[in-house]
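For the sake of transparency, this paper describes our internal protein records without simplification. An entry from our holdings is shown next, in its original layout:
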Amino acid sequence: MNTLTECLKKGTAPVQVISFAKQYLQNEGFEELCYDKLFGPQLKGKYYITPFKDVLFAFTMGAKRNFIQSVRMAFAHVDQPCFKIKGRPEIKSMGCAQLNVEVYGGMMDHTWFDRPLGMAGTVMLRGENAFTPEERQYESGRPVAIIPGIAIHMQRNANSGWEIDRQRELIPVVGLVGGQWTENSFTEFLAKELEVDESEILSWDLNLYNYDAPMLLGLENELISSPRLDNLASVAALLEAITEGERSNGINLIGLFNHEEVGSVSKSGADSELLTNVLKGIFGAMGCPDEVFRASMAQSFYLSVDGAHGAHPNYTDRCDITTRAYVGQGAAIKASGTCKYASDCRMQAILKALSEKYDVPLQTINDRNTIRGGSTLGPMIGSHLPMTGCDVGIPMWAMHSARETMAISDYEALCQIVTAFFAD
């Protein structure tokens, strides 16, 4: 639980998630390798690579060297719906200072009203030359904004499902400075926070996030409600599994990608050649030719680990009529006959056999024919590296809300099944 709660608290932006993961792995004895240099992995070694500040791969080497190296991999994403701050964000209205923002990802808009919002991400400063700007991570450490809702008396249809205008109604308030909030005021704020001259600030990638803390609830404290459960619960589970699951031979690897919520088409996304390049770097350092790499991939397996839609007690008509995932009854295999998920019957059989062997509760979920669930990294990974894979995740309620809810026991089940996948 400590890993999960710390990840939820500290993972306020993708770069902060990766920073948390790096520190966790360092504490577990993992050694950093450089993506832009020759790798040097050794048998029984534990390593991590951060090709960019918002993506990470960690892997362990078995003690034995085989001609064909089987790789077992598990992947998650580090981004979540939030508000991205635009390049010239200052807005004034009714005596209030506001920020012009862009909605990132498929959020449930109405859940973000009246939430305390923190700010986190990256700020770029002038460096020694144009091609080496200085990169600073920023975390406000306090709420700095809010999107105030409107009183029911002024929005009589508020309980009738009114359509929210994102450009007009989802503009956060950052204070009451009125006439003092002019062009460049936000840069001045950042300069003060970073203790630099405002002329040093060149650009930023900053988001506003829900500052609410994770909390346990339920009569037996069996549930957890928190921002960012999708998909930081998966990130935390993979970090625990890669440190616990060991094999005498072969390679275990986790990958933490960015930009899944907007399609994964980026240098840090799963729909890129980044994973292939990292794996080829590892195999190349071991002296394996391309034909050995291809043969190894054919004997390798992967898990795409992302949140699943839990059967909802108030919306019983929104899940499949027979194949559902219940909150509190284990992690869930996400299956699709239309190849929407990576899960094929072979990999489903492997996970079910592991669940029986290690007594880990495991469910299977299909989408209802009239309701399409969310996309995952799974099919993207399989299209770049053809191998056997499966989508699996924790059932949760209110996915993409400002707060989501899941069962603690399901997080424990996910940790156990991924650890068994790495260790068996």
About this structure: The first strand starts at residue 31 and ends at 33. The longest helix spans residues 229-244. The mean pLDDT is 93. Residues 125 and 134 are 5 Å apart (CA to CA).
